[in-house]
Amino acid sequence: MNGKIIQIDSNVSYVLTKEQEIYEVFIKGNVKKQIKPLVGDNVEFELIENLKGNITKIEERKNEIYRPKIANVDQVVIVTSLNEPLFASYILNKYIFMIETKKIKPILLFTKNELLVKTKHFQEVTEKVNAYKDLGYEIVILDNIENENYQNEINELKLKLISKVSFFTGQTGAGKSTTLNNYLVDHQIRTNEISLKLNRGKHTTTNVKIYNLPENILIADTPGFSSFELVNLEIEDILRSSKILNKFNSDCKFIDCIHIHENKCGVKNAVENNQLPAFIYEDYKKIYDEIASRKVKY
Prior knowledge:
This protein has helices spanning 29-34, 89-101, 113-116, 122-134, 148-161, 176-184, 188-198, 235-241, 243-246, 266-272, 278-292, and strands at residues 2-9, 12-16, 22-27, 42-49, 52-58, 64-65, 70-71, 75-81, 105-111, 138-141, 165-170, 209-213, 217-221. By secondary structure, the chain is α/β, with parallel strands linked by helices. The protein has a 6-stranded mixed sheet, sandwiched between helices. The longest helix has 15 residues, at 278-292.
């Protein structure tokens, strides 16, 4: 049998099949020695009794992310607050650069727009948000006010999730859980069924769950974060994969240009000519410094 791991609790994995059945499965020792299972893994398993089985194979992953620990993702919805907390571009840009190295599509979801409107930062932040759209990124802006416009925005986002494995992530307090509740409110019983199956006392979980929704929508809910490190990532990885940098690097004099110290750099020229927003480039330089100063761990 085949399926996708949607939740892991200690040594037990819960696998969703195409027939919409959830199986409680265990991983055999010889398989576990080869690779540790992750939420999102596509697996083969053998049935041992009613809705229980053993994993016999973990299929090759198309991608894998360490924060959160999840595999085989089509797109990530990065939830970012525009106010309370005030929009901060560095974490957002850092995450965009990171997931693009994994060849995962980012969707930028901006929340609490109704709070931003009332502040002196409205024009500055709005210009920054629109810059992502101008660079070709998909963006959704939520007012977080329960009205017709809010529901239209939620429905617009839902259309982007159909037939995809998506995970929602973002800084703590950005409104991720509030947004997710629009889609998950009718599906909590399924999750509670898994929790009831555990019934073995205290467990250590991955804190990553995939929810199976109608229209072949698979949504992974992940813990919020305040910061994260670029683990196992080099500046060359970003240079190869960045949608932003690759729009302008053809004008660089040197093929190995890193867009920091070089003269005749297409990226730096784009900043000077207002084709690339300066705030994104400044964040890229901070990311470069972070990677360059990273200590080697033994």
